[in-house]
Request: fold
Amino acid sequence: MRAALDALEPYKVKSNKGFIRLDNNESFLNVVSQLSLNDLQRDFEINRYPSDAVEGLIQAYSQYIGFPASNILAGNGSDEWISLICQLAINPGDPIFVVDPDFSMYEKNALIMGANVYRVALNGDFSLPIDQLIADILKIKPKCLFLSNPNNPTGSFYSRGEIQSLTQAMKEIHGYLILDEAYIEFAGNSYCEFVLRNEHVIVLRTASKALGMAGLRLGFLLANDRIIENISRIKPPYNVNQLSAVLGARVLSRQDLIRESLIQQKEQIADLKSILEAFVNVNEKIILYPSQTNFFLVEMDQAKELYDFLYSKHIKIRYFGSGRLKNAIRISIGTKVEMAKLRQSLNEWSQM
Ligand SMILES: Cc1ncc(COP(=O)(O)O)c(C=O)c1O
Reply:
């Protein structure tokens, strides 16, 4: 094994049987179950490698977001794009910037390529230290700056002006700016138009969150022609399977279902917010951070104890337990029944 991999922890996917799952920021709605799939066999040439099916998926995604199909590639989750961007951009020892906290896969994939990863700490309220960040970019000249926007796990959303300034700074040093818009449907304002005006900006999108298709593993890369051409040199030719491509395209062509599911998810976000606000009101020294996503970050001294307590009630949330998030938990939305169970369990905790 290469020495660069020594520091990486194996990713262990755990069983969720019997648990209310509020730990992965997924949708609680299964949109595929609302489709009529009786004629599905017609679209399935399982004996052939997928090609037209993936083209159909890209066309459907292009229509859904109103972005040119020739500037979109589909992948096996946006995780695959993060890995491929690192393979495209990074030589061993190259400096890479991530902000802290942010989605851990950026750092992991950069380390796999032997990068020298700089973690730029967000401000206390999780806003960007924009002036310092720009000064550091100009000084250290990172090959890539990765940002999830809205941020996972903080839930905060950076302004257009901040992203414009970072675009300019990364342009000056000839680095890539990767904006990961995994949760953009909950925040509203995509910055994907930056891609067409800036040769070095990449936007990532996913079908795993608001679109409710995490099990299909569909992620999208939006970039200008040159990046599309370059990343196509290293992309596995058939990285999206036939079943996912066909089902994904069918869901995307049902804008009515997507709109309705987003309304339901937004209702549940409001519900979760009110549950957590009530929890914060009756307990001391708990911070609930504002969120533009389908999850909330909560900081409290007894984060681990609360995580264990909810786990004992068969509710899984995310506990971080290190660094800036030493005392932080993240809770995603669930169904009305699941939220009622969460409310009841949090009330029990508050009364102990
Ligand atoms: C910010 C962010 N980007 C990417 C992903 C991965 O998405 P996908 O399921 O498309 O690989 C996640 C999943 O949690 C995420 O939070």
Notes: Residues 25, 77-79, 103, 148, 152, 180, 182, 206, 208, 214, 219 surround pyridoxal-5'-phosphate (CB under 6 Å). The first helix runs from residue 40 to 43. The chain has a mean pLDDT of 96.
